[in-house]
Design brief:
Length: 461
């Protein structure tokens, strides 16, 4: 009788799944029934909850959402999931051993209900840009779900999967990592049918334990895909990727050989990406192939556009639709954005930075056709013991190029030999300086790690 009274508000169908022994303990099967009953709505933040949803009380270094479980229910959540016993003191608050693992298990259970292609994307640079470009292409033919923004970690991946609905025909899951083992963990949650690694470079060196650790960590996706007997999309011109995926079943793209998708880069140095593509068995006379003129800047983005074309081609998206998708795509979120303010032209690539992406951004800007060019760079984070040498390499690269002005921002740059350059310890100090300069008719590259928040500089340019 006690069970019936406790769970009556949640419906008779759940009685067989639940049990109570001082605590409201719930199984994944029961949790999935609740998820369906909640209209497939979940939340992790009481500031942004939807009434009738399931609240997951996650923990972090500076927060413990178990403290807000009661509030979540009072604000309208159907149930709350906690992993500290003393908080499971309400009919609609349920206890699990680990909230995060339960969220991940729920997502994996939900993923198993779908027989649609799942494409996982990772890499040191360009994950989100690839995801957005591929999303644009596939959406021309399929109802496609993709990761929102860069919600690509151990929380973001399950939340993305839980957004899947019966109408979806394709899923693109972005996966980020800063230590070994994380990509494998995310793959076990999403169980992808296809994988794509954009590149492997000097990102998160501190967490991965150096470049060899990055190679091992990022290539976990290849190993998972191989074990599953699934396929990977791969830039055949990237010797490192090709080596790491040697035993994988591959769908290839690139420029140097007869790949499944073959590209022709017609981008002028520093300008918007222009390209053509064909297929292994398609037209080989480039004069007969349509030119694609994108709105994304940087020669380094050519291969990202070609990857999207390769995925679209493999999944039988019409070539004209691929062209339309790539030409209409507009970069956002401070990634490779080219735009004009009242006074200047800005290239805003300030979402994140590591040594590889910083180097190619500088090279690209050096080739950009403009008379008065200013470079503003912020610190690169998570480099550990490699920080000094990698920042020094950027400084040496800048010294070799004839930019009108170079401004370096952040504690790492500030402590090094930056003679001849303007330096600031913080982005706020730099903004104050720029506000007094009244720049006009300048072309400005802005780039730095996410924590530097370099995008605030556009306010005074």
């Amino acid at each position: 009788m006690l069970l019936i009274n406790i769970f009556k508000p949640l419906g008779d169908k759940l009685k067989g799944f639940l049990f109570c022994a001082m605590l409201n303990v719930i199984t994944i099967e029961a949790l999935y029934q609740l998820y369906l009953r909640a209209g497939q709505q979940v939340c992790t933040d009481t500031r942004n909850l939807e009434k009738g949803s399931i609240f997951f009380a996650l923990k972090g270094g500076n927060f413990n959402a178990n403290n807000f479980a009661q509030k979540a229910v009072e604000l309208g959540c159907m149930v709350a999931i906690v992993d500290e016993e003393n908080y499971a003191n309400h009919t609609n608050i349920f206890f699990v051993k680990d909230v995060l693992k339960s969220l991940q298990a729920l997502a994996n259970h939900h993923r198993k209900q779908f027989n649609i292609p799942f494409l996982a994307i990772t890499g040191s640079n360009g994950k989100t840009t690839n995801k957005e470009l591929i999303m644009a292409v596939l959406s021309k033919k399929y109802h496609t779900l993709a990761t929102i923004g860069n919600l690509n970690n151990h929380i973001g991946v399950p939340l993305t999967i839980l957004r899947l609905r019966k109408e979806h025909q394709f899923a693109i899951i972005e996966m980020g990592a800063n230590h070994q083992g994380e990509i494998h963990e995310l793959c076990t949650i999403a169980d992808p049918d296809y994988g794509l690694i954009t590149n492997i470079g000097k990102a998160h060196l501190e967490g991965f334990g150096g470049i060899e650790g990055v190679k091992k960590g990022k290539s976990e996706m290849y190993r998972y895909i191989k074990a599953k007997g699934a396929k990977v999309f791969i830039n055949g011109d990237d010797e490192l990727l090709f080596q790491l995926a040697f035993d994988n079943d591959k769908i290839t793209y690139g420029c140097k050989k007869l790949y499944d998708t073959i590209g022709n880069d017609l981008t002028n140095s520093g300008d918007l990406v222009r390209l053509k593509f064909t297929t292994r068995y398609g037209e080989k006379d480039w004069n007969k192939i349509d030119l694609i003129e994108t709105q994304i800047i940087g020669t380094y983005n050519f291969i990202n556009c070609l990857a999207a074309a390769a995925v679209g081609n493999y999944f039988k998206v019409d070539a004209l639709m691929i062209k339309q998708a790539l030409e209409s795509y507009q970069p956002n979120m401070n990634r490779s954005q080219l735009f004009k303010t009242k006074s200047n032209t800005l290239i805003l690539d300030a979402y994140n930075a590591n040594p590889n992406s910083m180097q190619v951004a500088i090279e690209n800007f050096a080739g950009y056709k403009a008379q008065h060019k200013v470079v503003i760079l912020g610190d690169m984070f998570e480099l550990g013991d490699h920080s000094d040498i990698e920042h020094l390499r950027i400084i040496e690269q800048l010294k070799e190029l004839a930019f009108e002005e170079v401004i370096l921002v952040g504690e790492h740059f500030y402590k090094l030999n930056t003679k001849g350059f303007v330096t600031f310890k913080s982005t706020a100090e730099c903004r104050d300086y720029l506000g007094k300069q009244h720049y006009a008719e300048k072309t400005v590259l802005i780039k730095g790690s996410r924590g530097m928040k370099m995008e605030i500089l556009q306010e005074v340019l």
